Amino acid sequence: MSRSGYGKGCPTRDSLTAPPRRTLGERASRRHHGRVEGTPERRDRDAEGRARQARPRDALGRPLPYDAAGVEPVPEAALPPQETIDAARGLLEAGRPFSAHEVIEARWKACPVEERELWQGLAQICVGLTHSARGNDVGAVRLVDRGIARLDEYVRSDGPLYGLDPVAIATCARARVRPASGG
C-alpha cells in the first residue's frame, strides 16, 4: 500500500487537484437557493421558504412532468395516530406505498420522542415496499428489515401500538419483498 493509504497505483491525496474554493457568498447563495446559477428555478416552496412538492407523481412516488396528471397528493400535515394508520392502510391497499410512507413520515416528524421508532419503522417498511414495486429487490429487503428492527425495538419499549400487530406487519412485509421462489 502506498504512503497515502489509497493503495498501489492510486494518486496520493497531495497530487489530486482540489476544485477552486467558492467564496462565502457563493456558498451561501447556493445553499439558500438550492440551485446552480443559470439553471431554472423549479423548486416548489411555501411562504416560509420550505421545500414543498407540487410536482405530480405516479402511484409509486416517481416525479412526473409538471403538466402531467398524477395521483392525488397526500396531506403534508401530521394526522393523529389512528387516522395516520387508517390512511396509510388505505394507500397500501390502493397500491401506493410511497404515499403511505409520506403520511407515516409526517406523523413520525410530529410524534412524541418515545414513539419515533414505531413511526420511523413503519415508514421504512413502506419505502421498502416502494422499492419492491419499482423492481429494486435488494433495497426493498434492506429497508423492510431495518423497519422491522425498529418495530421490534419499539415493542420492547412498551409504547402504544394503536391496534397494530407488529408480527403480522413484519410477516406481510417480508412476504411482499421476498416472494416464495417457484420451482
UniProtKB/TrEMBL annotation:
<dbReference type="InterPro" id="IPR023203">
    <property type="entry name" value="TTHA0068_sf"/>
</dbReference>
<dbReference type="Pfam" id="PF03745">
    <property type="entry name" value="DUF309"/>
</dbReference>
<protein>
    <recommendedName>
        <fullName>DUF309 family protein family protein</fullName>
    </recommendedName>
</protein>
<feature type="compositionally biased region" description="Basic and acidic residues">
    <location>
        <begin position="35"/>
        <end position="60"/>
    </location>
</feature>
<feature type="region of interest" description="Disordered">
    <location>
        <begin position="1"/>
        <end position="77"/>
    </location>
</feature>
<dbReference type="InterPro" id="IPR005500">
    <property type="entry name" value="DUF309"/>
</dbReference>
